[in-house]
Amino acid sequence: MNLIKLAGLFLLLYSTSVLAIEPFTIKDIRVEGVQRTEPGTVFSYLPVKVGDVMDDQHATASLHALFATGFFKDIELRMEDGVLIVVVKERPTVASVEITGVKEFPKQQLIDNLKYVGLAEGRIFDKSALEKSENELKRQYIARGKYSVVVKTVVKDLERNRVAVSFNVEEGGSSKIRRINIVGNQVYSEKELIGVMQLTTPGWFTFFTKNDQYSKQKLSADMESLRSYYMNSGYMDFNIESTQVSISPDKKDIYITLNISEGEKYTVSDVKVAGTQAVLTHDEILKLINLHPGDVFSRDAVTESTRKISERLGEEGYAFANVNAAPDVDKEKHQVAFTFVVDPMQRAYIRRINITGNDKTRDEVIRREFRQMESGWFSTSKIKKSKQRVDKLDYFSEVNLDTSPVPGTSDQMDVNMKVTEKTTGSFQIGAGYSSLEKVTLMGGITQANVFGTGNVLSTQVNTSRFNQVYSVNYTNPYYTDDGISRGFNFYKRRTDTTMLAIMSQYTSDTYGAGVSYGIPINDDEMFHLGVSLEQTTIGLTPYSPPQFTSYINTFGPTNKNEIGNIGWSRDTRDSAIYTTSGTIQRSFIEFSIPSSDQRYYKWTYQNQWFHGLTRNLTLMTNGDVGIAGGYGGMPLPFFKNFYAGGVGSVRGYDPNTLGPRDMYGFSMGGNKRLVGNVELMFPMPGMEKDPSVRLSAFVDGGEIIGSGGQTPGTDGMRYSSGIALTWFSPAGPLKLSWARPLNNQPQDNIQPLQFTLGSMF
Question: Where does the POTRA domain lie (predicted)?
C-alpha cells in the first residue's frame, strides 16, 4: 500500500518538490471522515475522476481545490490497490453566538451585524471571521464614542464537531470632546464657528443629542457646514488645510483641531446666460437667477439658481436639461463672473407610473391622486403635486417618489412611488386633569381606508359624564370619478352639564342624520354642501340661568330643525405627515332652514399658516373666528353657543370655560369666538432626523363674547404660553402640552397639563 499524506500549508506550497508518487490509474474514489458534508460535494470539487491518471500534478490540484472550499481543516490523499481515498477532517460549525455585557445597543442588532462578517449560528467556524467579529463590535462602540470598550472572546468546543462562541463586552464610558480648536480664523471668532458645527463640548442638552461624542461622520458633516458657512459669505477660496483628532491616554477626553485658510471675500462682477432660447428666453432665465452684479458670492445662491432653472425647464417637459454655472474668477480683484450655460436637451414624457408598498391600499386609490399622467409630458410641478396629494391621504407613514430614465431611450422616464402603509384604523382617547374635574376622557373609532378603498368609516362613542356621543359617519371621497365626495352621518348626542361644576346647568338630547357633498374647485380647494335633520330636547334644573328658562318657555323643550351647511376649504400644505410650509383655510356656515322650529346661523373661519424658518424650525400661526345669531326675530339657541378653552383653543384653561358666566358662576358660552395661536415647532434634540417627534413652544389667546355683553370679570382675551410634544408613536399620535395662563382671573378654571392619544389597531 502506498500512502500519500498531504496536510498543512508546507506540503501545499512545496508538494512538487517533496512528493514523488508513482502515477496510477484511478479505479475508484472513496471519501472518509465526512460528518456534515455529503461525499458528492467532495466529488464535485475534485479535479480528477475514475479512469484518470493520478500523479503529482493532479494530487496538488486536488488538495488546492478541496482546501479552497473552506470546509476542511485537514486533508489526506491515500492510494490503495488503485483506489483513491480522500480522508478529510471538517471544520467545526458554530452552534451558538452569545454577547454579554451589552447596554448601548440591542443585543440582537449586534448579533445580526456579525452575520455580515461571516459569524452566525449554523455557519462553518472560521478564525478570520472571529477576528472580524471582534473588530466589528469594537467599531460599533467607537462610532458611539466609547473608545475604551473591551471585547473578550471565548470559543468552547462542543460535541459533534461544534463550537459555542461568546463575546463579553466591557463597554466603558463614552469619550467626551473636551476641546475644539480652530486655527487660522480671522473673519469669524472661534465661538461663532463652533456654533455652526454639530459636534460640541459637554453641555445641558448633550445628554440627549450625544453631540459631545466624537464621530467621524459628524466631523465630516461639520467640515462641510464650515465650508458652506464661508462660501455663502463670499469666501470662495476657503479651505480646511488639516484636521487632528487626539485622545487622552485614559481614552476619556478627545481634542479636535481644525486648521483653516479663509482666503479673500469675493463679489459677483457679472451674470450672463448662454445656450439655446428655444424654450426660455435669456430674460426669463435671468429672472430665475438669485445672483446679481455687486452681490457677495454665495454658493447656495448659485445652487438655488441652477435648481430654479432646471425646475422651470422641467415644467415644459425637459427633464434631462443641463444647467451649469461656469465661473470666471479674477483673483486680483477678488471678483467672479458667472455664465449660466443652459441646454434643455430633449423633451421627455412619462412612460409608466410604478407604485410599490401598497399591500392593502388599492392601486386606483393612489393613482387617482396623481396629476402627472402616463404618456403625458414630464412636469416638475405635477410630480410634486402628485406626491403631496398621496401624502395628504394620511394612509402612509412614508411616501417616496423618484423618476428614472428608461434604458435605451432619450425621451422617456418612469415615475416610481414607494409607500409605507400605516394602520389607518384607530381609536382615540383624550384626557386632561384639573383640580375640579380630575381626569376627563373621550374616545372614538375610525377606519380611514376601509378595505383599501380610500373610503372612511368612523364611529364615535363618548360616554363621559357630561357629553355622551354615539355617531356613525361614512364618506366616499370619490363618489364620482372627477372627485366629488359624498358622506352620510347618523348621530345621537346627550349633553349633561349638571355633572360639571363649570358650565351652566341644562341637559340636551339630540338625534340627527345628514348627507354631505364635497365638490373640488381645483387640486387645493373644495366646496362643501350638506343637509341634515335634527331633533333636540332640552331639560332644565333649578340652577339653570334665567336666560335658558326664558328660552324654553318661549320655544318649548323639543324642537325639530332642517339644517343646511355650506363651506369652502383650501389646503396647500407640503405634507400632512411633517408639515413645514403651506396653509389650511376653512370657512363654513351652518343655518336652519326657515321651515324649522328655530332660525339661526353659525359661521366659522379658520386659517392655519406654516412657514419654514430654517431646516429644523417651523412657525405655525392659527386664527379661528366664529359668529352666530338668530334671524326672523328668533334668538340664537343657547345650546348652539361657542365655547373656548382647553386643547384646540387656549391651552392651560379648563375646556369650554372662557367667556360669560351665569349668576351661579357657570360658563354659558357666547355668540362670538376669537382664538389665535402662535407655535414654533422643532425636532426633539438628538432626534433631528426623526419626523415622528416634534417639540414646540406656543402662545395661545382666545375670547368668547356673549350676545348681552360680558359678565363682569369674564370679559377680555385670555392668554397662555407653554411647551408641547407631538409624537407619532407606535401606539398612535400623542400630543402632550403644559401651559401656564398669562392673565388668568380669580374665577378662571386652570388646567396646566393636557394630552390626547390615538392608539392604532
Answer: 24-91, 92-172, 175-263, 266-345, 348-422
Q: 274 and 285 in contact (C-beta within 8 Å)?
A: no
Distance CA(194)–CA(226), nearest Å, equals 9
At 619-654, the pLDDT tens digits run: 999 999 999 999 988 999 988 999 998 888 999 998
Element (H, E) at 503: none
SS3 42: helix
Is the pTM higher than 0.90? The answer reads no
Lookup result for grid cell 445597543? 105
Confidence tier at 91 by pLDDT (50, 70, 90): confident
Class of domain 93-170: alpha beta
- pLDDT, one tens digit per residue, over 126-169 is 888 888 888 988 888 887 778 888 899 998 988 878 889 999 99
Please give the class, per CATH, of domain 176-261. alpha beta
Q: In the chain, where are the structural domains located?
A: 2-90, 93-170, 176-261, 267-343, 349-421, 425-760
Residue 70: closest CA among 45, 33, 43, 99: 45
Q: Which class for 365: exposed (0-12), middle (13-18), buried (19 or more C-beta within 10 A)?
A: buried
Residue 91 in grid coordinates? 471544520
> What percentage of the chain has pLDDT greater than the value 90?
41
Q: How far is residue 320 from each of residues 273, 301, 306, 386, 388, measured CA to CA in Å? A: 18, 22, 13, 20, 23
All residues at 6 or more sequence positions from 550 whose CB lies less than 8 Å from its CB, including other chains: none
User: If one looks up domain 267-343 in CATH, what number appears?
Assistant: 3.10.20.310
Using the structure block, give the residue that is written with the C-alpha cell 383624550: 430
Burial category of 594 from C-beta neighbours within 10 Å (exposed 0-12, middle 13-18, buried 19 and up) = exposed
Provide the grid cell at 339. Answer: 455664465
Question: Which distant-in-sequence residues (6+ apart) come within 8 Å of 522 by Cβ?
Answer: none
Q: Give the chain's radius of gyration (CA, Å).
A: 37
Concatenating the DSSP letter of every residue in 721-757 gives: EEEEEEEEETTEEEEEEEEEESS--TT--EE-EEEEE
Cα within 13 Å of Cα(639), Cβ side: 26
pLDDT in tens, 445-466: 777 788 888 888 888 776 666 6
CATH class of 349-421: alpha beta
Helix (H) or strand (E) holding 417: strand 412-421
pLDDT band at 235 (very low <50, low <70, confident <90, very high): very high
- pLDDT per residue over 142-152, tens digit each? 877 788 888 99
Contact yes or no for 651/739 (Cβ under 8 A): yes
| CB hemisphere CA count around 146 (13 angstroms) | 18
> pLDDT at position 300, please?
93
Residue 417: strand pairing partners? 355, 401
* Domain 2-90, architecture per CATH: Roll (3.10)
Q: List b or e across 326-363, with b for residues whose CB sees 16 or more CB atoms inside 10 angstroms.
A: eeeeeeeebbbebbbebebeebbbbbebebebbeebee
- CB neighbours of residue 38 within 10 Å: 10
Give the residue from 387, 228, 279 showing the smallest Cα distance to 288: 279
| Inter-CA distances, 463 with 299, 438, 712, Å | 60, 16, 34
Q: Which amino acid is at 39?
A: P
End-to-end C-alpha distance for the chain, whole angstroms: 76
Contact between 338 and 302 under an 8 Å Cβ cutoff? The reply is yes
Q: How much of the chain is in helix, strand and coil states, percent to nearest 5?
A: 20, 45, 35
Angle at 372 between CA 371 and CA 373, to 5 degrees: 105
Average pLDDT of the chain is: 85
pLDDT tens by residue, 280-322: 888 899 999 999 999 999 999 999 999 999 999 999 999 999 9
pLDDT exceeds 90 at position 334? yes
